[in-house]
Amino acid sequence: MLCIKCSSEIPEGSAYCNICGKAQTVTRSTKKRGNGQGTVYKQPSGSWTAEVTLGWSIENGHRRRIVRKKSGFKTKKAALEHINALFHAPVSKSVITLSELWELFQRELSTLSASKQTAYRIAWKKIKDDVAYRTIDTFSVPELQELVDISAPSYYTRRDIKTLLSHLYKIAIRDDFVDKNRTEYIKLPKLVSTEREVFAPADVRALWRDFREPSTVTACMLTMLYTGIRPGELLTIRTENVHTDEHYMTGGIKTTKGKNRKIIIPDKLLPVIGYLLNTSAEGLLAYYKNDNDFYDDWKEKRSELGLSEQLTPYCCRHTYITNLTALKVSPAMLQELAGHEDYDTTLEYTHLSINDRLREVNRLS
User: What b-and-e string marks burial along 152-174, b requiring 16 or more CB atoms within 10 Å of the CB?
Assistant: First the structure.
């Protein structure tokens, strides 16, 4: 190499000239072309290097470029002419695991609704032991189909798993790890519409008997049976939003009509709500570490009480509405109590008070 000051020939890679003592630090001249079209730059030795970005890898949670380069060109023009060859040369694909893709996807979760976040976390929990450390490029369509089929018994959970995998594939395609979303070929079972079971009077009496030695899950089920709220609503109600003196609590999810509505507490339910308030934690009326713990608790209690396996927590809402309908509660009042969006125009003119609604729900036996 030649000294940058006196032009004397000095050993290749020298930090200083052994003739004049000049430091040989050279700022690399980088010429970037259009985005994704490659780059050429001049080496300290005077030769030129061509470089292209092939994709990205994940190292310690950070994305890093995967590049291919070739050096030794005498002219810039020669380096530029070689860029196309670098793009089309055979390359061994980089790999990324589903666990790494899940970590990337979690950054997007905050933009989704709470229910979607929960659904995808449950879906990941069901498949992670089988797929977490496999690379995205190693899955065949039959393997993905089998994974979905054996990981969940219900249509909706299978759908969530398929959708989650699709999100992971889209990230992998974006970052050039794969070129095709194989989840497009996963088939879901036909959705069979079944009528939900309702709690019979004997089932409700069994829960009241059990409440004599109260447990949180029994109190939760009774609360849903006498307020009609969904499990997801009950598990998110905060204690400061419970007003027992005024016979209501504020909560609700899903629709605009259903959110932050006043949920009426009938007289019969006050001891149950009092128990939940006295045993609350983390500021929540009904505290569970996660939703799965609540559902597991109910399955155990249901078996203990000898109740039908078809009686799920969501059946409480169906029972509530069914019973109020049997009591001939007016459609407008029923819609208001359920927090549905239908009959909104009618409800705008009714102006139903807390006392009006309390009088209706107190008729429940």
Answer: beeeebbbbbbebbebbbebbee
Number of H helices, E strands in the chain: 14, 7
CA dihedral 75, 80, 82, 83 (to 10 degrees): 150
- The token pair at 153 is 């018994």
Residue 76 within any structural domain of the chain: no
Last residue of a domain, one of 185, 215, 245: 185
Residues 205 and 177 in one domain: no
The residue segments making up the domain with residue 180 are: 98-185
Asked whether residue 266 falls in the same domain as residue 118, the answer is no
In terms of Cα–Cα distance, which of 357, 319, 212 is closest to 272? Answer: 212
10-residue mean pLDDT series, the chain (365 residues): 78 77 61 68 84 68 70 87 77 73 89 80 90 87 90 85 95 90 92 71 94 91 92 90 93 57 91 94 90 88 90 88 79 74 41 68 82
Q: What is the Cα gyration radius of the chain?
A: 32
